[in-house]
Amino acid sequence: TGLVIVSFLTIFLYFYVAFILERTQFIHLLFLYVLLFVTWFYLLKKGKENIKLLTRLSILFRLIFLFSIPNLSQDFYRFIWDGRMLFEGFNPYIYLPENFINQQEFPINQAADLYAGMGALNGSHFTNYPPLNQLSFYIAALFAGNSILGSVLVLRIQIILADIGIMYFGKRILEKLQLPIHHIFFYALNPFIIIELTGNLHFEPVMLFFLIWSIYLLFKNKWIWAAVTLACSISVKLIPLLFLPLFYQWFTKSSLDSTNNDEKLSFLHKQESKQNKKWIPAYAGMTKLVLFYAIVILTSLLFFTPFYSSELIDNYFN
Asked: Are 213 and 169 spatial neighbours (Cβ–Cβ below 8 Å)?
């Protein structure tokens, strides 16, 4: 009974955030966040044995936002702009929205509305979203090229599907690590994740989906495909580039090629030297590590090739 009441309360709170809350109502937002984190804690504590229920709630809470226009972020207007530019045959990396508007040119549907929504600050900068992120924007333009709400709907469906994928692979990684399955809901039911990513249409879930998939493939010893999926993650958001040094620990453990599955759960295999009692890593996987990095970098660069131009390099680095 308690779970049902708290679930309905959480649904109401997310509905309020999605359709009623205004961006300037900071106190309201703070109060809603506090309440949502309280309900999140209760659901985790009381429902951790009911994985199916928590999974369904994770999806349901996201679906509440499906038809809402983000009210806490305006970045999505630039997402839609970039996607429609691609759809019309323009390279989004070499054109500024500001220049079109100042010249009274409207190369895409609803150009004036999109520019007003993104704001002059966003519209005066070149886009910085990597190629696979641009593909997501293009899909929105392909299916909803004449409607801002329709584009929002398409973008949000992609994010929700990515979160479902994170739950799928995340649960399997937890099983391999012999950790409680309900730990996945520290992410999946987290109010900040639901509001900021699903609600405000930020594409970290798509990035994380490929990242988690890559880690899962490493557990399966499919390190080449793991490199490709990691490159996909980087091609959505550049953040995973920061994680590349961490893979050194995985590839240099001597148990990488071991048939003992229990040993594969260790991220760093250490051997104790009887002479000096120091812990040292095993270096057997250095060749694979170098190849892994090479595949990641080359695949990431490959995704940029359809957009290649001298302007792209200058604008993107800027």
From this structure: yes
Per-residue 3-state assignment (H helix, E strand, C coil) for the chain: CHHHHHHHHHHHHHHHHHHCCCCCCHHHHHHHHHHHHHHHHHHHHHHCCCHHHHHHHHHHHHHCCCCCCCCCCCHHHHHHHHHHHHHCCCCCCCCCHHHHHHCCCCCCCCHHHHHHHHHHHHHCCCCCCCHHHHHHHHHHHHHCCCCHHHHHHHHHHHHHHHHHHHHHHHHHHHHHCCCCHHHHHHHHCCHHHHHHHHHCCCCHHHHHHHHHHHHHHHHCCCHHHHHHHHHHHHCCCCHHHHHHHHHHHHHCCHHHHCCCHHHHCCCCCEEECCCCCCEEECCCCHHHHHHHHHHHHHHHHHHHHHHCCHHHHHHHHC
Which residues are bridge partners to 281 per DSSP? 270
Token reading at 255 = 């148990």
> What residues does 271 pair with on adjacent strands?
280
pLDDT per residue over 208-263, tens digit each?
A: 999 999 999 999 999 999 999 999 999 999 999 999 999 998 888 744 444 444 44
How far apart are the C-alpha atoms of 57 and 11, rounded to whole Å? 9
Give the torsion sign (CA, 203, 209, 211, 212). positive
pTM beyond 0.85: the answer is yes
